Amino acid sequence: MAARNNGHGRPSAARQVRRNRTIAIVVVLALVLGAFGFGYVLASGGNDIVPTPASIPASSSDSPTASPEPSESPSEEASESVSPAPSGDLLPDGRYFVYAKAVSEGAVGPELTFDLAYFLTDEAAQEAATAAGDEFVNGYYIVNDNPKLRTMPLSPDAIVRYVPEGTCCNLKAGDLDAWSAAVNGTAQTDYPNMDPTGWWIRVEGGEIVRIAQQWVP
């Protein structure tokens, strides 16, 4: 009669196969988990802090850049030429070269009446001078063919920079009231003669917020 296996003898062939499969699966899992953990340590340098999207700096194209303010050097004021202006009095935001004619009190505050001109440099200046039959000297040329006068609101907090009469050549902090008096000829000041002197005005939000003299030799 054949002997019965009661669990203490040699296991059957089918049970042995199942056991071997179980052991193989456990070994494979252990190797995979171990490799993953080791790879994570290498990738993170042992640090468990993982960067999140919020901690990644935005690209330069997503961040607005501020335009630099004009320097206090008059020569740098000359590096920019005004763009053509619309036919109306009000100018878009930007910097413009003008001749100041009068400061008056408007309906809502002070106003500046000015003659818009074009301060050209480099090749544009040379071409304009040649076209007009003038000599090109000192690296700049002023075009002022339109006699139209414009009037725009003048901020009461407008910043003024100028070169005091008889000095050269750096811009100094000025006073809006004194500058207005010089424009209107109502008080003696150390501002230069307004007739031949050009000024850069900065327009923001429909009013003039900055005035800087253009010094020329």
Distance separating the two termini: 129 Å
Helical residue percent band: 25-40%
The shape, in one word, is globular
- Topology as H/E string? HHEEHEEEHEE
How does this model look, in words?
The model is unreliable at about 1-20 and about 20-80 (pLDDT under 50). This protein is about 25% helix and about 25% strand. The protein is α+β, with helices and mostly antiparallel strands. Strands 1-2-4-7-6 form a five-stranded mixed β-barrel. The chain has two domains: about 15-50; about 75-215, no CATH class. It has helices spanning about 15-45, 75, 120-130, 175-185; strands at about 95-105, 110-120, 140-145, 150-160, 170-175, 200-205, 205-215.
Q: What would you say about this model in short?
A:
By secondary structure, this protein is α+β, with helices and mostly antiparallel strands.
Features:
217 residues, alpha+beta, 2 domains, five-stranded mixed barrel, 4 helices, 27% strand, disordered N terminus
Task: Detail the topology: elements first, then pairings.
Layout: H1 13-44, H2 74-77, E1 94-105, E2 110-121, H3 122-132, E3 140-143, E4 149-162, E5 172-173, H4 176-184, E6 198-204, E7 207-214
Parallel strand pairs: 4-7
Antiparallel strand pairs: 1-2, 1-6, 2-3, 2-4, 4-5, 6-7
